[in-house]
Amino acid sequence: MSRGHQKLKNHQLKPDRKYGSVLVTKFTNYIMQCGKKTVAENIIYSALKNSSKKLGAEPLDVLERMIKNVGPLLEVKAKRIGGANYQIPMEVNRERKETLTLRWVLSAAKSRKGAPMAEKLSLELIDACNNTGAAVKKKEDTHRMAEANKAFAHFARL
């Protein structure tokens, strides 16, 4: 007998204690490993402090510029139609844009070698604000894929 599935409620994050931003909390949760939130907070706070000092901007402005420069407008999603898989370009909503941006910046920072994580993240934030770096390249690759598969955009409405 079915117990009736209920839709999960979207978990509301609390703003962080230093900047009062939900985005910083989300970024902290992405960085956190093994439940060590204080370590993750220290990493992101020092990275934001260093990058804002080098760029001469407020830390939250640095994050907003990063989201603007790295966040994709389009992405491709695989859809099976008539026995064939098509890569269909779709628009990205704000929440997914933030998620992809944080994920790409973090993976680009992790792939850098020979420095503490706070320093690597700081350098990646600076690169993202200057429209350079691995995270921006990932965005451009995603847009290039969407542009190449623009012919299948009409399948998005099916």
From TrEMBL:
<dbReference type="GO" id="GO:0019843">
    <property type="term" value="F:rRNA binding"/>
</dbReference>
<dbReference type="GO" id="GO:0015935">
    <property type="term" value="C:small ribosomal subunit"/>
</dbReference>
<keyword id="KW-0689">Ribosomal protein</keyword>
<comment type="function">
    <text>One of the primary rRNA binding proteins, it binds directly to 16S rRNA where it nucleates assembly of the head domain of the 30S subunit. Is located at the subunit interface close to the decoding center, probably blocks exit of the E-site tRNA.</text>
</comment>
<dbReference type="InterPro" id="IPR023798">
    <property type="entry name" value="Ribosomal_uS7_dom"/>
</dbReference>
<dbReference type="GO" id="GO:0003735">
    <property type="term" value="F:structural constituent of ribosome"/>
</dbReference>
<comment type="subunit">
    <text>Part of the 30S ribosomal subunit. Contacts proteins S9 and S11.</text>
</comment>
<dbReference type="GO" id="GO:0006412">
    <property type="term" value="P:translation"/>
</dbReference>
<comment type="similarity">
    <text>Belongs to the universal ribosomal protein uS7 family.</text>
</comment>
<protein>
    <recommendedName>
        <fullName>Small ribosomal subunit protein uS7</fullName>
    </recommendedName>
</protein>
<dbReference type="GO" id="GO:0000049">
    <property type="term" value="F:tRNA binding"/>
</dbReference>
<keyword id="KW-0694">RNA-binding</keyword>
<keyword id="KW-0820">tRNA-binding</keyword>
<dbReference type="Pfam" id="PF00177">
    <property type="entry name" value="Ribosomal_S7"/>
</dbReference>
<dbReference type="InterPro" id="IPR020606">
    <property type="entry name" value="Ribosomal_uS7_CS"/>
</dbReference>
<keyword id="KW-0699">rRNA-binding</keyword>
<feature type="domain" description="Small ribosomal subunit protein uS7">
    <location>
        <begin position="7"/>
        <end position="150"/>
    </location>
</feature>
<keyword id="KW-0687">Ribonucleoprotein</keyword>
<dbReference type="InterPro" id="IPR036823">
    <property type="entry name" value="Ribosomal_uS7_dom_sf"/>
</dbReference>
<dbReference type="InterPro" id="IPR000235">
    <property type="entry name" value="Ribosomal_uS7"/>
</dbReference>
<dbReference type="InterPro" id="IPR005717">
    <property type="entry name" value="Ribosomal_uS7_bac/org-type"/>
</dbReference>
